[in-house]
Design brief:
This protein has about 290 residues and is mainly β. It is built from no helices and 18 strands. It has two domains: about 130 residues, no CATH class; about 140 residues, no CATH class.
């Protein structure tokens, strides 16, 4: 992959940039307001992730209302996918498919990797811990909607983040939350995943697991590929062609996976975190 800087990171409000086709560079940034229809939220709103049809946005937030205790995952909807100012007010994901007038249901303190497994899946995405970094995927093979996300053992943005998967049930609610043991094979921070949404056969994640170059920042981008969505994820390997000696994180893949967006501090501390894009040629048959 070849890498170039794209847009400078500004703050933790949501901004949008559009282009007429994939051959053009992204344009100027426009602030929009899914967190609060009157303007940006006063809390940290992070990790926006669009569904493929562009009508729903997932993100996580540390807002103090309608929250289960730490950072929670929220969703916002819009009728016109071309209207970046047309988002409805966001709703806690635990309310999805449920009566919005009911009290908010939340997962418990113990719903971590030792509890949420394939034999005893947990039933709510947001818990009293921090749930973050949503990544939506529709699996054509099983005709299921899946949401990859990360959960820490603390009610903050710190701690031991691991990767989990939730599924949209037949009752219209997000549940069946399972710790993804294949992607989180170490006791180190695994956070912010990006799945190749065209087929679900490639996953890129930011991790602080051992294996990064000596003397570099611990957080690096790692990749895992599989032959079928029915297969488990192999242990991720370091994405050496993209990583630097600085902090590299928050990956986001284009639909055809020819563009990988991420942030990096590679230009030095004074520059802060900037956005970069790495490109590759589409492989025939993939």
């Amino acid at each position: 992959m070849g890498t170039r800087k794209t847009l400078n990171a500004l703050d933790r409000s949501f901004l949008a940039s559009e282009r007429r086709d994939v051959m053009m560079h992204v344009g100027s940034l426009l602030q929009f307001s899914p967190p609060n229809k009157g303007g940006p939220s006063s809390a940290n709103d992070l990790a926006p992730n669009l569904t493929t049809d562009g009508h729903m946005l997932f993100f996580h937030s540390f807002r103090g209302t309608d929250n289960c205790g730490g950072g929670d995952i929220y969703y916002a909807q819009r009728q016109n996918r071309r209207n970046d100012l047309g988002w409805e007010a966001p709703i806690n994901l635990n309310r999805f498919g449920r009566d919005l007038q009911e009290p908010l249901r939340c997962g418990g303190d113990t719903e971590l990797k030792s509890v949420c497994n394939s034999l005893t899946p947990c039933m709510l995405v947001n818990s009293s811990k921090t749930d973050a970094g949503p990544a939506f995927f529709h699996d054509d093979v099983t005709d299921t909607d899946q949401l990859y996300f990360t959960r820490t053992n603390l009610s903050s943005n710190l701690g031991d983040f691991d990767v989990y998967t939730a599924m949209l049930g037949l009752d219209g609610t997000w549940g069946r939350v399972i710790f993804n043991e294949e992607l989180s094979t170490t006791p180190f921070r695994d956070t912010r995943v990006a799945i190749r949404r065209r087929d679900g056969l490639e996953m890129i994640l930011a991790s602080e697991r051992p294996g990064f170059p000596l003397g570099s920042d611990a957080r690096k981008l790692w990749v895992s590929t599989r032959a079928s969505t029915l297969d488990p994820w192999p242990t991720p390997v370091l994405l050496s062609s993209v990583n630097s000696t600085a902090l590299d994180g928050a990956p986001g893949l284009s639909w055809d996976a020819t563009e990988l967006y991420f942030f990096s501090t590679r230009d030095g501390v004074a520059a802060g975190s900037d956005l970069y894009v790495a490109t590759r040629t589409k492989i025939t048959g993939q």
